[in-house]
Amino acid sequence: MTKRDLEKRVEHHQKRRAEAEEAYRKHLEPDFEGEAWRQTVADAEQDVLTTLEGTHDLKDVEAALGLTGAHMLALRFLMAPPLSQDQFKLACPEWQKGTEKSGRPLSPKAARASAEAFERWQDHERTTPIRNSDENQQAAVSATAHMIAVNTYRTVRRMRLAHEQEQTVVDLLLHLGYRRQPSQLVDEPGALAEDEFMHATQFKTADGSTHEVDVAIGLPKRTILALECKVSNDKTNSVKRVNDVLKKATAWKRQWGKFVVTGALLQGVFSAKEPRRLLEEDVEVFWSLHLDELEEWLREQRKCSSG
Fold first, then answer.
1. Are 275 and 230 spatial neighbours (Cβ–Cβ below 8 Å)?
2. What is the CB-side half-sphere exposure of residue 230 using CA atoms within 13 A?
3. Are 8 and 106 within one domain?
4. pLDDT digits over 193-212, tens only?
């Protein structure tokens, strides 16, 4: 790609970026956002109540963690100050971070160490009324739920939009006649035939590890489009989203060469520099607002093959 071609493509995607930001801004409606926020708070409050039930109002944290690590979410936010997963891992090296999301039981040693760390870090102003079941218990539960909700709201909203974004791609591919295949490890060129696709599958990389791709699409000549769907809430967040795409693109290029084309479908608010960063690394850029451009790109691949 010549410098002139790059600048023309950058200019095109800057217009698309501005349109995406304006569309995102228009959807920041109080009614919609307020309802989503209230649901996030309600979900967080249920998480806290589940933990209080499982720990018998914090009286047996060790035993509860021996049944499920999911309780650590509420427990971390019942600390003073609330600790992130990485911070709690520093405070309690025996704890396995993955158990919080998976809900797997902690080992006896990890459960004991985590319970002891909780005792040291707990916020007594909230844990005391909870343990005593006094009139301030509900206030403590509500305060903790709001802390969790503030921490998770943007992520919850972005993940919901990302799920919807991926579904629009799946719907488009089915409309174009692509055949959906069960997700499985992609470890060789041609693993996906032309006009086949997989949703949320794993690609092998040169060091033997794998990276998940949101949608893998079979192209002519045994090549595959690895399409990453990225929603960003703000310009700062967009850097992380694009870094994730570039990291995967580099790993796939090292393993697959030209047999994998990396693509990024973008939605939301992105910094002005992000489209250029993607294009300079030969990533194909598309926008959810203009899904027709992805459709046209796929049709062009078919034309090149038949031609």
1. no
2. 29
3. no
4. 999 999 999 988 877 788 89
* 166 shares a domain with 149: no
Last residue of a domain, one of 134, 154, 174: 154
Domain boundary among 154, 176, 197: 154
3-state secondary structure the chain: CCHHHHHHHHHHHHHHHHHHHHHHHHCCCHHHHHHHHHHHHHHHHHHHHHHHHHCCCCCCHHHHHCCCHHHHHHHHHCECCCCCHHHHHHHCCCCCCHHHHHCCCCCHHHHHHHHHHHHHHECHHHHHHHHHCCCCHHHHHHHHHHHHHHHHHHHHHHHHHHHHHHHHHHHHHHHCCCEECCCCCECCCCCCCCCEEEEEEEEECCCCCEEEEEEEEECCCCCEEEEEEEEECCHHHHHHHHHHHHHHHHHHHHHHHHHEEEEEEEEECCCCCHHHHHHHCCCEEEEHHHHHHHHHHHHHHHHHHHC
Q: Are residues 128 and 225 in the same domain?
A: no
pTM of the model: 0.74
Provide the residue range defining the domain that includes 252: 3-28+160-306
Query: If you average pLDDT over residues 85-108, what whole number do you get?
Result: 96
CA gap 17, 286 in Å, rounded: 10
Question: Do residues 16 and 64 both lie within one domain?
Answer: no
Count how many domains the chain has: 2
Give yes or no: residues 183 and 280 share one domain. yes
Give tens-digit pLDDT for 56-93: 999 999 999 999 999 999 999 999 999 999 999 999 99
Note whether 39 and 7 are same-domain residues. Answer: no
In a shared domain, residues 166 and 112: no
